[in-house]
What does this fold into?
Amino acid sequence: MNQQFLLRLPACGGAELIPVSTGVIPDSMLCSLLQTDMTERMRVPVLPEILSDSARVLCYFIDARGGDKGLPVNTPGTCFYHTGCPIFGDLLLALCDQNSDSGEIHGFSEQECIQLKEWLHQQLPVYFEY
It folds into this structure.
């Protein structure tokens, strides 16, 4: 199986590929990457066309205590949330099973990450300047 990646969107801007093992990604790895003891999973409300053939959905994971910790606002996360309430700290993008609340977590191929970064740049060009 090929290398998989998560896509980290730091609160300060940009996007980083994070190599992960293939297969199901454990919650403990997400906690470690976000330097927290508890993550929160949310579904991105719009599925990019590049992932429309996938049986999975696009989810993002944040530090569930980011606001309490005084972490900086994450612009893409706040936009994904669609409520006007801010999302704090870095976030991780991953693929989840259709039942995103309890589904397994999977990474992206390198090509999917490249396409996803391009889609994010189209959605929020100031945040994702090249």
